[in-house]
Structure of Glycosyltransferase 2-like domain-containing protein:
Amino acid sequence: SDQQSLDRNVPDTRPPICKTFTYDRSNLPKASVIIPFYNEALSMLLRTIHSVLNRSPDSLLNEIILVDDCSPDEHLQQPLATYVKLLPKVKLVRNDKRQGLIVSRMRGARMAEGPVLIFLDAHSEANEMWLEPLLDEIRKNKKQVLQPFTDAIDAMSLEIGEPGIYHKGSFSWDLRYTWIKATEHEQKDASDTGLPFFTPTLVGCAIAVDKNYFEEIGNFDEGLKVWGGENIELGFRAWMCGGKVTTVTCSHMGHVFKEFPYTFDGDKEEIVQKNLIRVTETWMDGMRKYFYASTRIFSYKRAELNDEDLQSLNERKLLRKNLGCKNFEWYMYNIMPQLEAPPMDSVFYGEVTN
Ligand SMILES: [Mn+2]
């Protein structure tokens, strides 16, 4: 019950300029933090919860919603339920069966009472003053999807590492998430000014967004199963449909980058491939050809889509039309010019496998 005693000294990884900023808390919207988990180590989950409770001003934290995606782990049953009852603001709901990360996040989002949603992975640690800079950005402009700056927590020692240099979220033509290094002047600018910088796609482990705006642009695409592609899809959608995607330099969040980010029921590769096909078909217009050229498996899987898949895909295409979103070429030229089109006119382009 004594939260302060559970706090530790962590390295404050924010750029020094951030420590000079002040925020008028009475003017900031309140946040609901949504944390889905599946068989997370209890200690890691509690580290996430306590860091949010300890490092968020009471007046700005509406609630923390834990969504158990049907974890069989015993520690996460009665022991967690009993412990959570001792904590202020923490709600625990459990899925009857596995729903995956994306659907679990949306379950939390629908319950949330705060005007701002913050989706957080269950293996995170919020750093000092993590919340105010995010909320202040949303106060200034609701039509954006934000992420804090992510510091890696070492998966073995569980220590928070030194902050990395500034990267933006990108993707390869097979729609895997990649990082691109910000240019030297962008890096200097970010650390000197503490101002947010734009990013083409989201890393996905922590996302902050105005609840109404998120609903307006179609929430997470719940046709994406379990995990995979949702961070790229949301990046495309926000940019192409009149919003923007930003990394908030002064908000720092520790995160354990796991080898397997989320546990799957079923064939992981196949689920992710189908998700990526869905993202491609919804958003990439004529540039889909580069995606399909990157590996032949996508064409095979595309042929396997059934009527139900195609119907739900059409619903997303309709959403895109109704929102009056720009085309993918606009996105590539304006937001992601660093990514070059593959050499389709060369003799061969593609993969080598054994
Ligand atoms: Mn994660």
In short: The CA atoms of residues 69 and 99 lie 6 Å apart. The pocket of manganese (II) ion is lined by residues 121, 123, 205, 255, 258, 261 (CB under 6 Å).
